[in-house]
């Protein structure tokens, strides 16, 4: 049987189920990735489950999100994470070492392996010939403990790249083109696999840019071949022995096929406030900006910064413009300094920030109210920048640098200069100084976890009741993101290890009264929410499921879910339902009470059942897509309860 790369990766890691599209499969996970905005909860979950030692080939904890230390909270949690990695046998990437995705790519990623991360942009490492996927923290904790990752067998979407990129057009414009064609739901239930002659001009880091923003299409993952370019990249990182060739069989087919002719692409931009709102830069040229921002995991490569430096070299950015440079790893920053690119940027008026996620997650560099921000980041969901009333455009480094010079959105092709040709350093820096290796097991067993005053254990959560009368506290529209469900940023993320505190921010962008009403509902049996299409798109943060659950959320009834958030709801015992008839969405309103009777029996006996609206002559047909395994999780009130019960049974034998 002829296989594409995705099928080869899945087949070689399949431990449960069959490779039939839409059916649940279990995959062995070789590597995991956690970051500090999600990793604290993962470490608490490992402790709660009694895990002794990571069972993966390599697991790494990165500190890249919460690196602004305005008080003790972040610093204390970093000490907790450091102690937890020493205790459980993980790598620990210290603050300032860089963003998890490019650092993992440089130091640990291996072709042919699986990678699961508690960050939705973990898929970026698919550029290395890996099956790399984002997930909620509980799924990652289980993978660290040696458990399989369960997903629905995806369709494989083959994208054939032909032609050659014109000057002033780069990798970011390739993924923008796919978003322009298919919007933010286009990749749901699919792995995107790139192939074709157009790959030859794309470096490993260019592929990282494209794979990273596969998350914005809702894709399960993005896969590139492991070819001579990946071998070159690993060799310059001093890891050529980790390379294997991994390509599709000649004649292999795809469930869906599409072609992008690179020669036909133009500079593209995503307008506020969705990565799918893509138009040519020329269409919005002349729009005034306040900020131009280069960096993040969506443009983390040496050339991404170097090309911006060459564009502004010997010039000065426009008056009133904040030109923000967000380095993505210490290795890369060192090389940019050696080649004088940082000097060019600073002399032009740029502001240099520490290596980390920073403004991408609203952790600093927030724009002024009512002003336009131009960013090379992967997302522009409302409020994600740290400014609630923000107006964020997404673009390539070329467009960001050109616009910084003019003070308005500028098509870089209109600059009166030749396109800079960037040459990679001949001997790039290899720096493992801030990447601590796992301790030997005997030494690790002696380590005690350090817990600062801001760390609170997860409260007990009850099993699913058989009878529920649930008031609808919120009715929302399409494409509600996890940033809207539970914001990131410097105000919120320091409480990621304190569920009672972080819950106070739940849904605040949508309805500031939700927290108070949610707390009141806990006493009366909980509540429900209603949503449209693609509910829960964006970040993998499990707090977006965990905080509403803490506030009494029992049922989410929507038109359809984003993959990771749907899984997170299941993990914490929130029943995710979809409308059988989408027009029923219009029949129910916020404040209505949903009556669910004989619920435990119904979700075990079939997928469809009826929900009545109390006091109204309305019946809603709802359905779930849970596997038998997930039904058991829901009945127990979440995965923590189920795992505890299993461990208790094992210990009593």
Automatic annotation (TrEMBL):
Known EC number: 4.2.1.3
InterPro entries: Acnase/IPM_dHydase_lsu_aba_1/3, Acoase/IPM_deHydtase_lsu_aba, Aconitase/3IPM_dehydase_swvl, Aconitase/IPM_isomerase, Aconitase_4Fe-4S_dom, Aconitase_put, AconitaseA/IPMdHydase_ssu_swvl
Occurrences of domain Aconitase/3-isopropylmalate dehydratase large subunit alpha/beta/alpha (ranges): 7-407
Keywords from the UniProt entry: Iron, Iron-sulfur, Lyase, Metal-binding
One GO MF term attached to the UniProt entry: aconitate hydratase activity
Reaction equation(s) it catalyzes: citrate = D-threo-isocitrate
Positions of the Aconitase A/isopropylmalate dehydratase small subunit swivel domain: 528-581
Superkingdom of origin: Bacteria
Keyword Iron-sulfur: yes
PANTHER family, per database record: ACONITATE HYDRATASE B, ACONITATE HYDRATASE, MITOCHONDRIAL
Subunit: Monomer.
Protein's recorded name: aconitate hydratase
Species for this entry: Lederbergia wuyishanensis
Lineage: Bacteria, Bacillati, Bacillota, Bacilli, Bacillales
């Amino acid at each position: 049987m002829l296989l594409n790369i995705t099928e080869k990766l899945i087949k070689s890691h399949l431990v449960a189920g069959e490779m039939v599209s839409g059916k649940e499969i279990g995959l062995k996970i070789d590597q995991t990735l956690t970051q500090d905005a999600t990793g604290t909860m993962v470490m608490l979950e490992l402790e709660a489950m009694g895990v002794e030692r990571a069972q993966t080939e390599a697991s790494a904890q990165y500190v890249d999100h919460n690196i602004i230390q305005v008080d003790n909270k972040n610093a204390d949690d970093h000490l907790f994470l450091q102690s937890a990695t020493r205790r459980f046998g993980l790598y620990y990437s210290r603050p300032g070492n860089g963003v998890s995705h490019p650092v993992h790519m440089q130091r640990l990623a291996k072709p042919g392996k699986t990678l699961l991360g508690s960050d939705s942009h973990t898929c970026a490492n698919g550029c290395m010939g890996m099956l790399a996927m984002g997930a909620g923290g509980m799924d990652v904790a289980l993978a660290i403990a040696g458990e399989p990752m369960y997903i629905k067998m995806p369709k494989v979407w083959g994208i054939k790249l032909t032609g050659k990129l014109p000057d002033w057009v780069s990798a970011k414009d390739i993924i923008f083109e796919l978003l322009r064609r298919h919007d933010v739901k286009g990749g749901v239930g699919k792995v995107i696999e790139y192939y074709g002659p157009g790959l030859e001009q794309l470096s490993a880091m260019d592929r990282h840019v494209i794979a990273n923003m596969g998350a914005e299409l809702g894709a399960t993952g993005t896969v590139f071949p492991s070819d001579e370019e990946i071998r070159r990249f690993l060799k310059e990182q001093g890891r050529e022995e980790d390379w294997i060739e991994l390509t599709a069989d000649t004649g292999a087919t795809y469930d869906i096929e599409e072609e992008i002719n690179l020669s036909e692409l133009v500079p593209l931009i995503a307008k506020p406030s969705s990565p799918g709102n893509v138009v040519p830069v020329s269409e919005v040229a002349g729009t005034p900006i306040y900020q131009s921002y280069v960096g993040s995991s969506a443009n983390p490569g040496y050339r991404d910064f170097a090309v911006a430096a060459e564009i502004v070299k010997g010039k000065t950015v426009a008056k009133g413009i904040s030109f923000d440079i967000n380095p993505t790893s210490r290795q890369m920053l060192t090389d940019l300094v050696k080649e004088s690119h940082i000097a060019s940027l600073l002399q032009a008026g740029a502001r240099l920030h520490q290596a980390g996620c920073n403004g991408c997650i609203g952790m600093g560099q927030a724009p002024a109210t009512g002003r336009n921000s131009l960013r090379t980041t992967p997302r522009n969901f409302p409020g994600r920048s740290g400014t609630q009333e923000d107006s964020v455009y997404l673009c390539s480094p070329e467009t960001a640098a050109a616009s910084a010079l003019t003070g308005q959105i500028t098509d870089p092709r209109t600059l009166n200069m030749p396109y800079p040709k960037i040459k990679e350093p001949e001997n790039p820096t290899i720096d493992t100084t801030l990447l601590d290796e796992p301790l030997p097991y005997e030494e690790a067993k002696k380590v005690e976890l350090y817990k600062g005053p801001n760390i609170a254990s997860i409260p007990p959560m009850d099993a699913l009741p058989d009878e529920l009368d649930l008031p609808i506290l919120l009715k929302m529209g399409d494409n509600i993101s996890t940033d809207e469900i539970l914001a990131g940023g410097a105000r919120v993320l320091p409480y990621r290890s304190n569920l009672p505190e972080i819950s106070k921010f739940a849904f605040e962008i949508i309805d500031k009264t939700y927290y108070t009403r949610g707390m009141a509902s806990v006493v009366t049996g909980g509540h429900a929410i209603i949503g449209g299409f693609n509910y829960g798109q964006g970040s993998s943060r499990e707090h977006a499921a965990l905080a509403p659950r803490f506030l009494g959320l029992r049922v989410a009834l929507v038109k359809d879910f984003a993959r990771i958030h749907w899984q997170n709801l299941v993990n914490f015992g929130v029943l995710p339902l979809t409308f059988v008839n989408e027009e029923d969405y219009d029949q129910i309103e916020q404040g209505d009470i949903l009556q669910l009777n004989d619920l435990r029996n119904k979700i075990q006996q079939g997928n469809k059942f009826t929900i009545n609206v109390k006091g109204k002559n309305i019946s809603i047909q709802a359905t779930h897509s849970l596997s038998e395994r997930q039904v058991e999780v829901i009945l127990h009130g979440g995965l923590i309860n189920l795992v505890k019960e299993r461990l208790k049974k094992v210990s009593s034998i």
